[in-house]
Structures are given as structure tokens and as C-alpha cells.
Amino acid sequence: MKTIYTIVAVTAALTLNSCGSSLAPVRKDAIKPITVTQKTAHDTDDPAIWINPTDAAKSIIIGTDKETDGGLFAFDLQGKILKKSISLQRPNNVDIAYGLIINGKKVDVAVTTERENNKIRVFSLPDLEPIDNGGIPVFEGETMRDPMGIALYTRPSDKKIFAVVGRKNGPSGSYLWQYELTDAGNGNVGGKVVRKFGNYSGKKEIEAIAVDNELGTIIYCDEQFGIRKYKANPDENDNAELALFGQNDFKSDHEGIAIYKKENGKGYILVSNQQANTFMVYPREGVNGNPNSYPLLSEIPTSTIECDGADVTSVNLGGAFQNGLFVAMSNGRTFHYYSWNSIQQLIDAAKK
User: Fold this and answer.
1) Between the CA of residue 44 and those of 4, 132, 297, what are the distances in Å?
2) Would 1 be classed as within a structural domain?
3) What is the distance between the alpha carbons of residues 8 and 32, in angstroms, rounded to a whole number?
4) In a domain, 72, yes or no
5) Which of 82, 180, 347, 348 is the most exposed place for a label (fewest CB within 10 A)?
6) Does residue 80 sit within a domain?
């Protein structure tokens, strides 16, 4: 059943608490969602978009339900729940990659952090079945583990897939660990640590992580401090920070990150300004020939309340999403789908 809400209805319905603070109302000029999904059981947190390779209109959204006895939910483009995964112990963030080689075959995967078990979990797509033999332990040997954020990097040269994992707390310089996903035999996925990196301010936590495969970069939010950028390829042995931006643009927490990709490395980076119920937009390619310069281009007010996570695609999914779909988590156990056109209009207006 397709559910379409006006901004008034969304504002009235979404009143639950989030991990953020100082709940702000939805702005009157907020863009309206095309669809609001059916509700999950507990607490939505982060979405990822899987593009159906044979029919983009049949693409699905994978979203986390963040609680003990939570799980991953698969939604169609009308917001209907198609399936829930096996129960997981507080799944936090999720990301998707294509073509992981398992038993000689290419398998699309969704990978999520399972916070209470200190593991990452791997599911095949689109059937959302576990293929990890109970999970891959992360941050082994560390006092603070609690995995939260995750993003997947597919290296263009050999198509190997790596998981970049963040946690609730950790030391600056090695806060993030990067794992190569491997064929563990018997149809299961394993993982091995290949890198430890990432500066941390100590202010709050690092949860939102995004990878730009084409540009070979990792971008993550050091909450209440700024947005940091690093190289994605672990074999380059380069852990130098490339950029730190967005330090003065946010009301409080820097949250979910989504990268809208245009041709030739152009596009936009959208970051949730959680307590303001807006998204801050930066140029994916940088400005004036400097790929590490990120001035604020626009602030997009949305219908979401205290958004933790988001994803976006520029692929034509048909209908209202011919120039792409932007999906964001909201309080009220839902995800909101927006036509990219509504976002692009506001970005263009800010340039005038």
C-alpha cells in the first residue's frame, strides 16, 4: 500500500525521541516526500539503495531497525515492506555493494553493523539472506568495540570489496578499521583487517560514513566537530587526512551522508543537520580545481525528524524518480523517499 503524507501529517505523526537532542519542528518550506514507508517494529536508523540490474523500477531500499531483536527491512519503491531479515542485536548502519565473489559467483550484498554482538553481518541481495556464518567480529582486542557506522568500498582495479567500520568510541588516528571481505568457503563471507585510520575529535562519535568508489575517497562525520575525508584504497598506505569541512554549518550533530553522483566526478555530498531537520549540500568535486575544498552550497529542509541516515542515487528508477531518489530516515520508524528533482531545484535556487 502506497502511503503519501503531506508535511502537516508527517509533522504530527513523527514525535518519537531519537538519539539526537532538542527536537525541532519541520520547517514550513520543507520538501515533501513522494512516499513514507510502512513502519518498522522499533527504531529506523540508516537506509541503502539496491539498484535492480534488470529493471530499475524494481529496486529496493534496505533499512535498519535499530534495537535488540531488530533487523534489516527491505522496502519497494512504494514504501511497502517486502521482507525482514533474521533478528539482529541492534543493527545500526547499512551499506550495499555489487558483485562480491563467493563460490566463483558474483553476489550483491548488504552489510550492517550488529552493535551488541560486536560484529558486521552480511546478507545476499535481493533475497536478504545471511551469508556470514553468524557474523564477522570487528575491533577484536579493543576495549571499546560497539560497531556503529559502515560503508563499503569497491576498488575499481580488481573489484575487491572492503568494509569501513566505525564505532561508538575509539582512539584518534585508528578510530576506523577497514576490512577486506573474502570468500570464507561454504558460501560464507569472511573478513580480515587491512587498515586502521581516522582522526577523531573526542566530542561525540563517528557513525555516518560514505565511500565514493569512483573518486576513491571516504567521507565521515566526526559528530559536533566536522566532516573528514580520506583515501579509500588501503593498499596506498596513505592515512593522511585530505579535508576537514562543515565545521560551522551545523546546529549540533553531523549525521547521515549521501553522495549524488553525476558524470565526470561531479555531483553533491548531502549531510544530515540532524537537530535542524535539514541537509547541508557540498560539491562532490570541490571547487576551483581543488577537490578538497568544500564550501556549503545549500541547506535543504526536509520532512524528516532528527534524521540519522540517508542514501541517494542518480539512476533513473522511473515514475517520480527519473532523475534519482533520495531516501532519509525519520523518527516515527519510517524512511522518506524524495524525488531528486525537488532537491535539485533548491540547490539551483541557492546559486542564484
Assistant:
1) 18, 23, 28
2) no
3) 10
4) yes
5) 348
6) yes
Distances (CA, A) of 186 to 3, 129, 180, 183, 228: 41, 14, 18, 9, 38
The contacts of residue 170 (CB under 8 Å, 6+ apart) are 139, 142, 144, 200, 206
Query: pLDDT tens digits for 69-106?
Result: 999 999 999 999 999 999 999 999 999 999 999 999 99
Q: Give residue 281's pLDDT band: very low, low, confident or very high (50, 70, 90).
A: very high
Tell me, yes or no, whether 2 lies in a domain: no
Q: What is the pLDDT of residues 295-331, one digit of tens each?
A: 999 999 999 999 999 999 999 999 999 999 999 999 9
Q: What is the pTM of this model?
A: 0.93
> What is residue 23's predicted lDDT score, i.e. its pLDDT?
64
Contacts of 173 (CB under 8 A, 6+ apart): 197, 198, 199, 200, 239
- For residue 33, the domain's CATH number is 2.120.10.30
Amino acid at 4: I
Number of separate domains in the chain: 1
Q: Taking the alpha carbons of 61, 325, 228, 230 in that order, is the dihedral positive or negative?
A: positive
Range of the domain at 97: 7-351
- pLDDT for 8 beyond 90: no
What number of residues does the chain have? 352
Per-residue b/e over 266-279, b at no fewer than 16 CB within 10 Å? ebbbbbbbbbbbbb
Q: Single out the residue of 279, 169, 166 nearest to residue 228, CA to CA.
A: 166
Is the per-residue pLDDT at 258 higher than 80?
yes
Whether 61 contacts 45, CB under 8 Å: no
